[in-house]
Amino acid sequence: SADSDWPAAIMGNKNIDMQKLAFLKKSVYLHTLVFICLLFMKELKIITNIQVCDYSELVEEDKILVDKAKAMTEKSYAPYSKFHVGAALLLSNGKIVCGSNQENAAFPTSTCAERTTIFYAHSKYPEARFEKLAIAASSDGKFTENPVTPCGACRQAILEYEKFGGRPIKIYLYGEKCVYVVNGITALLPLQFDSF
Q1: Which residue from 15, 48, 81, 104 has the least number of CB within 10 angstroms?
Q2: Are 64 and 70 a contacting pair, CB within 8 Å?
């Protein structure tokens, strides 16, 4: 038929394998569909606003929280990565709960500083809401020059407690050069999963 001769005629080879020919036709068809879909796709732009300041510009309460996060890097157990992270969480009852990353040779069982801190805080003070969270990291005995952000799993965990508390948790990400001040985890996790 004319249809079966189409690619063979193009390639000038009447003895082409018909299975290869069928695959070629499907491939051309699918690539054409993808191209057409791309022509009609809309673009979604996500803009995140993060304040950048110097440590000296923080109010005293926030400096204390950041200092506690920095101190917690010394209590980190990180024999594998040598990357020490500390976190400090201010609760609505005025308590400050701190934690650090805890590594394990079976790496998936390790726990980041943020999750160590928030899970302990909620288990100890289940009625309290989370107000502010400070995070600091060090390696080779020096704090990171630039702020370090929470990993995806920690962002998702923080989101859970924002939803539980009904309000954003202010996050301070410490670096020697500057501090990032984030007004809620959704700034770091804009397309979040928050329900079934």
Answers
A1: 15
A2: no
